[in-house]
Amino acid sequence: MPFLLDTASAIKKRFGFQDQSISESVPCTPDLLKSVSRDHHLASTQPVVATPASRRFSDWDEDGHGGATGSEVAAPRHAQSFEFSEDPSFWKDHNVQVIIRLRPLSSSEISVQGHGKCVRQETCQTITWTGHLESRFTFDLVADETVSQEKMFKVAGLPMVDNCMGGYNSCMFAYGQTGSGKTHTMLGDIEGGTRRHSVNCGITPRVFEYLFSRIQKEKEARKEEKIKFACKCSFLEIYNEQILDLLDPSSTNLQIREDVKKGIYVENLKEIEVASARDMLQQLIQGAANRKVAATNMNRASSRSHSVFTCIIESKWESQGVTHHRFARLNLVDLAGSERQKSSGAEGERLKEATNINKSLSTLGLVIMNLVSLSNGKSLHVPYRDSKLTFLLQDSLGGNSKTIIIANISPSLCCSLETLSTLKFAQRAKFIKNNAIINEDASGDVIVMRMQIQQLKKEVSRLHSLVNGGAESLDNDTSSLSFLGSPGQFKWEGLHGSSSPLMSEKRMSQKKDYEVALIGAFRREKDKDIGLKALQAENQAAMQLAKQREDEIKSLKMILRFREAGVKRLEAVAAGKISAETHLLKEKEEHLKEIEVLRTQVDRSQEVTRFATENLRLKEEIRRLKSFCEEGEREMMNEQIMVLQNKLLEALDWKLMHESDSLAIQKTSLNMDTEVHDDLPISIQEQKSPRQSSINEENEFLRIQAIQNQAEIDLLHKQLEFCFEEKDRLERAINERTEQLELPLSTDGSVVNANDQMELKTMVDAIAAASQREAEAHEKAITLYTENNELQLKLETFD
Ligand SMILES: Nc1ncnc2c1ncn2[C@@H]1O[C@H](COP(=O)(O)OP(=O)(O)OP(=O)(O)O)[C@@H](O)[C@H]1O
């Protein structure tokens, strides 16, 4: 990769470092080789001074991975070394740490400005800018030129890994002008990823080593808890406000998304699962190489872009029947050079690039400024979304993260202003207040309950679909859970999975119980719904019925009143008190009133259909009555009455005739008896006389009765005549009404005039009454006829 070597060489020359070491370090990432060559150069020009280490990192040192060789750092001549030690309790109480790292003067700087410096370190925490107006700055730590890579890792990198292992999101920024040592701090030398890292290896590879050694130790120490780890990594570059996936360079211009569960993430960014530090380092090297290629292709320096390497660490273990799930995200950010990009004279892409680099860094500055204001109680909008960088790292700045900012500065006088700018930036960043929390769901029950809720929700929707006649298959128990801020969804193997101890029979039976209870509840709910609907329908029907009954009662009362009036009128007519004409006029008047009253009710009548049926029935009745008349029954009855009448008269005549004859005979026989039997005692004669007189009396009685019967028959005859007339009149009236109304059944056959129905009904009732009277008269005539017959027989007996 000669072009990479060329680029590295050019940078080194720019800062006065020699290239000779390049040939000494064989398979190296060119970008990272800079520090090796430079250190070699520094070592050759400056005496080596041992770095005082105030605290041993026994765990890390013992395994030998992080051990310094003692040849890596060349302390500056006459430099005063300060104790540079970490405070193990720092991260317990703080979420943001700011460290200043000075790099040694480069040969070019020395050649230009000599050994003059723009800064003077006062203590391990304070540094004074010795420029035009001296300014003193205090930080959490100030690392001078003598601080080794290993030391930097132990102070900055190691606690970050510990934080992540504890479930905290963590972030490390390297800030500073170009050539100030950001990449040296973050990456340093990387020896191809296959061998143990060199003394100049930066924080990132050491972080990988330490991370996996911690994981291994955790696994060994917590075998009983069956702790499992899953690590993933991603690597991206933000250049010109565009995101490039360094692990998949074909993915360009990726978009940042925000999700309630996942938090802020880059859509479609490749996340590669890694099982070892070497795997992760290989990804880092590959990404760095891709970054170089991209920079070269675009004819730009990588210092103009920001790079973010992210490690995602997830762990799961069991403790006392509870499953714990923890995750953390570690962002390792190498920012673009903080010096102002020169936009004057730049055109096209260069101008755009300069603008965007300035934009993202100025937004970062603004975000930090506003966060500081916020921590001072002011309410300000924090413009995270104004740049890709701040949007992506939103959590790391003022959010859920433990963040460390390493501000790299050059002590050279030639970098005085940029150094001052960096110190000011770092000073502000010191006031950022983050709110880091452990990303852990320590309650397996909660997880299970969540999953049960999901299951029950599915069950609910399935039952709903069943209730609605659908059939939805929701057999798949596999579900995924995700937690707020989680880097991704945590795959859960479902209730039938075998990985969780909570997938016990107890859980299964609980689930079944819930299902049964839920199904029961649904059934009851459905039953209640049905019952309620039935009750509502019943209630409505009852109300309708009550109303109908009310209306019917009203109608019936009215009809009754009309009937009574009609009957009275008919009686009056029969008694000859009023004329039939007056009665009809009166009745017509009454009918009109009745029609008027009923008309007001018809609109709201619920029984129109019933009336229509009734109408048909009445029509049938009318037809029957008509046929009764038309088929000659009336004449027949008249005829029968006449026959009876004649027979009765004949019987009477015959009787009277025989009575006169028998009286004459009796007289004759009496005379004879007197003449022949004068000697008969008078008593016998007297005996015959009372018998004769009783017969005479009886005959007289029968005669009178016959006359009365005749009179009665005459009367009945008259009544019958009247009934027939009345019937004819009513039939005519009905026909008229029927023609008038000819009850219009609507298209659906349901709408008829209820008033007219009532009227018709009344008429039919009147007809029925007339028919009844007619029948009664008929019956009476028959009775009389029978009586006459009996009388006749008696008379014959007497005769
Ligand atoms: N603490 C240090 N000790 C020894 N050499 C250092 C140190 N810091 C930086 N250097 C050397 O300085 C040179 C520039 O450093 P580096 O490339 O890391 O700067 P940078 O800030 O990343 O620049 P850029 O923004 O252009 O990428 C490198 O050759 C590096 O090896």
Looking at this protein, list some descriptive labels.
799 residues, alpha+beta, Kinesin, Butyryl-CoA Dehydrogenase, subunit A, domain 3, 3 domains, ten-stranded mixed sheet, three-stranded antiparallel sheet, 19 helices, 55% helix, 12% strand, rod-shaped, binds adenosine-5'-triphosphate, motor protein
Q: Specify the structural class.
A: alpha+beta
How many structural domains can be distinguished in the coordinates? 3
Rounded mean pLDDT score: 72
Radius of gyration: 61 Å
How many helix segments? Answer: 19
- Strand segment count: 17
**Could you give me the name of the CATH homologous superfamily of the largest domain?**
Kinesin motor domain
Q: Tell me what portion of residues adopts beta-strand conformation.
A: 5-15%
Query: Could you name the CATH topology of the largest domain?
Result: Kinesin
Low-confidence stretches: 1-78, 470-503, 673-688, 743-752
Largest sheet, in brief, is: 10 strands, mixed
Small molecules (ligands, ions, cofactors) in the structure: adenosine-5'-triphosphate
Task: Explain the layout of strands and helices.
Layout: H1 2-14, H2 30-45, H3 58-62, H4 90-93, E1 96-102, H5 107-113, E2 119-121, E3 126-129, E4 135-138, E5 141-143, H6 149-165, E6 170-176, H7 182-186, H8 203-221, E7 228-239, E8 242-245, E9 256-259, E10 263-266, E11 272-274, H9 277-297, E12 306-319, E13 322-334, H10 348-375, H11 388-392, E14 402-409, H12 416-429, E15 440-441, H13 444-467, E16 479-481, E17 490-492, H14 505-574, H15 580-602, H16 608-630, H17 633-676, H18 682-741, H19 754-798
Parallel strand pairs: 1-5, 1-14, 6-13, 6-14
Antiparallel strand pairs: 2-3, 3-4, 7-8, 7-11, 7-12, 9-10, 12-13, 13-15, 16-17
The structure holds adenosine-5'-triphosphate.
GO biological process, one term: microtubule-based movement
Binding site for ATP: 176-183
Domain Kinesin motor: 95-432
